Amino acid sequence: MRLLTLALLAAWPLAALAAEQSVDADTGLATWQTETAGIQVRLTQISPNQARGFYQARGFSPEAAERYAAECVFMTVVRNVGGAPIRHQLADWRYEQAGQPPRTIRSKTQWERLWKQLGVAEAARIAFTWAQFPATQTFAPGDWNQGMTSYSVPRGGAFTLRFVWRADGKQHSGKLEQVRCADENA
Questions:
Q1: What is the band of 18 on the pLDDT scale with cuts at 50, 70, 90?
Q2: Whole-angstrom Cα distance, residue 156 to residue 48?
Q3: CA distances from 88 to 9, 43, 52, 97, 181 (A)
Q4: Count of domains observed in the chain
Q5: Which residues pair with 151 in a beta bridge?
Q6: Which tens digits make up the pLDDT trace of 132-178?
Q7: Which domain covers residue 92, as residue numbers?
Q8: Which DSSP helix (H) or strand (E) runs through 80?
Q9: Distance in angstroms (rounded) separating the CA atoms of residues 35 and 37
Q10: What does pLDDT average to over the chain?
């Protein structure tokens, strides 16, 4: 009986990390979501055309908007579904494709340098910064936030996202596997 209990306890975290995937019937865009240890993380594909249109409407040139649309872009939502505050730092998150080492998500600071090099106007850069997922945030129980994240993965390519957060003085981690980038026709 004790071995069975230990086996069930060992398997529980894996079951808690199982991701749900859904596809929007109208857009064909996919969402991956997981909930574990007080956090819910959801990634929803943003099509290249949506990314282009969003940033061109905020003052990006077609070339600069294309630079962002060439990335694998997602609407990222984090929600505290537990009873204690949670804190995340995007710099701790990693993504990886099969056979490649884990990579960090490009920071707002890195994007800001690129936008300045490309001559993107300040107002457009501010709009970009506000639309991105926060670099760090503390979520009280019930709090949530959303913003864009991007990954250097080819269109239609798959990756695993490993996200990290802190709660009750401990570091936790989870993952979303087989997240797929929207292709050009999405």
A1: low
A2: 11
A3: 26, 16, 28, 22, 23
A4: 1
A5: 72
A6: 999 999 999 999 999 999 999 999 999 999 999 999 999 999 999 99
A7: 20-180
A8: strand 72-80
A9: 7
A10: 91
Q: Is residue 10 part of a domain?
A: no
Alpha carbons 160 and 130: distance in angstroms, whole number: 25
**Of 73, 70, 181, 71, the residue nearest 133 (C-alpha):** 73
CA atoms of 57 and 51, how far apart (whole Å): 10
CATH number of the domain where residue 147 is located: 2.60.40
**How far apart (Å, rounded) are the C-alpha atoms in residues 111 and 131?**
12
Q: What does the pLDDT look like over 56-105, one tens digit per residue?
A: 999 999 999 999 999 999 999 999 999 999 999 999 999 999 999 999 99
Polymer length in residues for the chain: 186
- How many other β-carbons are positioned within 10 Å of the β-carbon of residue 89? 13
